[in-house]
Design a protein that fits this description.
This protein is mainly β and 347 residues long. The chain has no helices and 30 strands.
Length: 347
């Protein structure tokens, strides 16, 4: 019998809430794990009240991936052993169908999954034991479209997916890293896949961050071997120029698209959190880095128009939320985390 656990949602008081039916910043992290697992996924967000909720969920063996659709429904994908599971926290703060459902394919236990949301559902991507990339769709209440193979040989990292806003049929980008740390992208235009495109850059670490802007282009951010952040635009099947944002960071960058801009967060060697903006387009859109005044192990940035919010864990294992619109930090009292990784949405 599969071991089930509880997924608990926590909402923290911070500023005036958005009404259900609109996007609301949300974060997921692993807690209570054992035996190498990332643990039970927990969620927290910003609303006007404290709200706990429980749903059956498998104990995850990877960090969860999170995406949010235009209505504010939050999709969560994660690995449990060699299986992909998907759950949806509806904008009513209730779990769809009472919890998580299995996606119906076996992947390597060491793999992770990524999810992107659109108006009619979500796109899930995962890597098989040969390094090939597969994708599936999941629509409410509990309908999978079936796994499809996109090929590729990417043993060194798990894929990241980003959905084009408002696309119908759904279009999306996938970004991966190969065995030599080179970056590759692929684009599904709604009916067909354009193949894998070499990005011409090498990332120092395994983590890549990607978001899709209001111009329907993907923006990919990496950390190089000198600890500087770089950004490139991908326009469908064409990889653009890489531009250096400078800096000296110890964590991979996190990116989000908000209100026509791209925002980036990273932490320095002392865990100090810094953010910068990148103007959408094919030219160098970097703005200056600015400190937020907090310290997080791996800050994750999410859209919160007109700017952004940041969530993460400090060195003592406490979770924090930064709201740029009010320039305030908020401590979030939630169950003890088992990993410093925090996944956020919308991106």
């Amino acid at each position: 019998m599969r071991r089930l656990s509880l997924l608990i949602v926590v909402a923290a008081v911070a500023y005036a809430p958005k009404m259900p039916g609109a996007q609301t910043p949300t974060a997921i992290f692993g807690a209570g794990g054992s035996g190498g697992a990332s643990g039970i996924p927990y969620a927290f967000g910003i609303t006007s009240f404290f709200y706990p909720s429980e749903a059956p969920a498998p104990v995850s063996s990877s960090n969860p991936s999170v995406a949010q659709d235009p209505l504010g429904d939050t999709y969560v994908a994660m690995m449990s052993g060699s299986e992909v599971w998907v759950g949806v926290l509806l904008n009513t703060l209730q779990w769809n169908n009472g919890g998580f459902v299995q996606a119906g394919r076996v992947f390597p236990p060491s793999a992770a999954t990524s999810i992107g949301a659109y108006a009619a559902g979500s796109v899930i991507v995962a890597r098989d034991s040969s390094g090939g990339i597969w994708w599936n769709t999941f629509a409410l209440p509990a309908t999978f479209g079936g796994w499809r193979n996109l090929g590729g040989v990417f043993h060194s990292t798990d894929p990241i997916v980003g959905v084009v806003p408002g696309s119908n049929p759904v279009s999306f980008y996938i970004v991966c890293r190969d065995d030599s740390n080179s970056i590759w992208s692929g684009y599904w235009n709604g009916t067909s896949f354009g193949g894998w495109q070499h990005g011409g850059a090498q990332a120092a670490g395994s983590t890549i961050s990607m978001t899709v802007g209001s111009d329907n282009a993907a923006y990919v951010a990496i950390l190089d071997s000198s600890n500087s952040v770089w950004m490139a635009q991908v326009q469908q099947n064409a990889f653009g120029t890489w531009f250096s944002g400078g800096g000296n960071f110890s964590t991979a960058p996190s990116v989000a698209a908000s209100n026509g801009g791209i925002y980036v967060a990273a932490a320095d060697s002392g865990n100090g959190v810094w953010t910068a903006a990148f103007a959408q387009g094919s030219t160098n859109g970097w703005g200056a880095w600015a400190p937020l005044g907090g310290r997080l192990l791996s800050p994750q940035i999410k859209a919160d128009p007109p700017t952004f919010a940041v969530a993460g864990m400090d060195g003592a294992g406490s979770l924090w939320w930064y709201n740029d619109n009010t320039a305030t930090w908020k401590f979030v009292s939630v169950p003890s985390p088992s990993t410093a990784a925090v996944a956020v949405a919308p991106r």
